[in-house]
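fyi for ur records
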Amino acid sequence: MKKYTFELKKRVVKEYLDGQGSALDLAAKHGMATASLVARWVSQVRSGGFKALHNHGWIRYPLEFKMEVVDYYLNNHVSLSATARYFEVDNPTISKWVSNYRKKGIDGLEPKDKDRYQSMKKQPRPTTEKERHLQAEQRLEHELYQVKMDRDALKKLLDVTRKNHPMETKQK
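which gave:
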């Protein structure tokens, strides 16, 4: 995948916004394979300004922040672009978080391990009964830990939701 400099992206978007050509014309002029790149860059600039064109690399967002962004998007009935502007996060990232949340719940927002092939490594099989029981106990302890983490995350999400959207008190 070809990387484009910030300067080139900015120049192409300015040319597009100044009416110096269509996305297809500018893509051909600057030697890009597709006009969809130009359209994407224009969309990024419209939603987040020219700073959105910078390649920031990988940013690791905390779970609480991801939950706040997803909660804001789902409960305030705003667009991805508006949510992206509000939290200063790009649209595809928020879209991925929302999709993961809908598929897996809070687990979908958890940061992934850096070792992608960790799950593929074979673990030695326990040979004795005692080793099997120890492994089962460790697995249950890990599961309990995960459940507690999910519970705590839900509590935090509930607190954030209550702070952002206080319920109206009913008067009798």
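The two ends are 64 Å apart (CA to CA). thats all i got for now
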